Amino acid sequence: MSDRPAVVYLTGWCRSGTTLIGNLIGELPGALHVGELRYLWRHGVLGDGTNDTCGCGTRIADCPLWSAVLRRLGAPDGVPDLLERQQRLLRTRHVGARLAAIPATIAARRDLERLYGAIAAEAGARIIVDSGKFPAEAATVCGSDRVRPYVLHVLRDPRAVAESWRRPKAYIPAMSACRSTAYWVAFQQASARVGRAFPGRYQRLRYEDFAAAPADTLGAVLAGWGLAAAAPVTADGTAVLSPNHTVTGNPDRLRTGPVTIRPDERWRTTSPRTTRYAAGLLAAPWLHRYGYRLTGGADRGAGVRSDAGTS
């Protein structure tokens, strides 16, 4: 076993099940789900983000793990520079540049490597799950030789995603169907581009397939990378979630105890027609590609895919 930690980076667009999947992988022995790690500096150091609660229930700055990680990294010194590089180098539009071995990519990669290394050292983790969902970060870490990077591209029907965004959720405000779907399209395209560049490190998983058979689909992902022989969920979709150390993410990250994973198709009846039509029309060119139907009928099962397609 390599002494380099494995980093499973979850990419895609929000409200697609990445928090639950991250928490499940975090239940593996030696694994740690850190949530949307990108926001550690703003939430844990500057305190000006949307939420400063760690998944363990304490403030990030007071959490024993994160306070130790931040001390190891010398925070708050250098945090303004880290945030500036994030904005300048690691947004979705920067995926192409981060796939190139240029000085800016190397600088961004070093930031991530230092952070993942500090987490591995303080937590004793051999698997770090980062559900940041920024394809540019996935592209950057894939070129690392200091961690073992893997990218799991998670996606969900954009109409279901738009319905989820229609209502605010705790510290996350609502978003229009048009805006949500525009992000959905951009994030799928960028994530697939990472997959084409690093096919051996990339797998794609539809939330609908995961929810229908979580043990089989997530188990196949983990086994494909040699991270675990099986997923920490029973054949009937039951899992037990422990407290975690997620920096931020969907408020459901704070849920612990037994959970039962089941398909959720409520959006088909609860979503207003305007929401469904707006999301469906904007994403129409990509629906068939990912196994979704534009009108009526059941979706085509896609399971776990290791190819990035042509999107």
TrEMBL record:
Gene3D superfamilies: P-loop containing nucleotide triphosphate hydrolases (3.40.50.300)
Xref: SUPFAM superfamilies: P-loop containing nucleoside triphosphate hydrolases
Entry-linked InterPro entries: P-loop_NTPase (IPR027417)
Protein name according to UniProt: Sulfotransferase
